[in-house]
Amino acid sequence: MNYTDLIASIARDAAGATHVTVPEDWMQGRTTYGGLTAALCLEAALPLAGGRPIRSAQIAFVGPSTGELVSTPTLLREGKNTAFIQVRMTGADGIVAECIFAFGTARESVLDFSDMKAPETAAPEEIPSFFPDENRRPHFSKHFNVRLARGGRPLSGSTSGEIVLWMRHKDEAAPINPTTVLSIADTPPPAAFSMITEPARISSMTWMAEFLTDDIRTEGGWFLAQHIAQTARQGYSSQAMRLWNSRGEPVMVGRQTIAIFG
Description:
Elements: H1 3-8, E1 11-12, E2 18-21, E3 27-28, E4 31-32, H2 34-45, E5 54-61, E6 68-78, E7 82-91, E8 94-104, E9 144-150, E10 162-169, H3 178-185, E11 201-211, E12 223-233, E13 236-245, E14 250-261
Antiparallel strand pairs: 1-2, 2-6, 3-4, 5-8, 5-11, 6-7, 7-8, 9-10, 10-12, 11-14, 12-13, 13-14
Helix pairs in contact: 2-3
């Protein structure tokens, strides 16, 4: 099922909770792909946001998410400009994700700057695929085009903990909006995964994302991502994440904690 049809299949009950069954082709091992989990939770929160744009997302991946997933939003606080919304996603085995979303309208400010210069790369059409073997990639990743601009592929024994990639949905009907950005931003495996040479199981534990604009746009659906593994110790890796549109304009920054079983 493509992304557009999957989002369209979401049903909302009288209490405001959303219900969706994620098909096998969106799985990452034994759980739903993390970016999609986050996107589904954001979709549940939007009706309570009063039209305010999203500013930040804090997501805890509590357990494997399979089968029918129910996302229940709760408005924690609403002010004139901002709203904080909690979303709890549950599955057959209990809680699978816990999220806090902060929404805020734009306001006048004397501060207007950015230190997020996009890495220099070739155009995505000129760069080879991040997954050279289509038969050896996670199920969910087949919904995305991913091009490796810098760094090593998974299990390549790279000496660098940095990867730079162009990414886009293969589904050309996918809208360019915050939900879609969340769904794509977590596509690549952890940057530290390129530094090892033997297969190991990995699992995202937490993800924090901050949206840097309320006017998300790009050309051809492409986004440029930079992921940097800053530490890897005692079976956990912490990485910084940055995302730009096709023009090199900043869209998102984030941090992620990953458990590495190997």
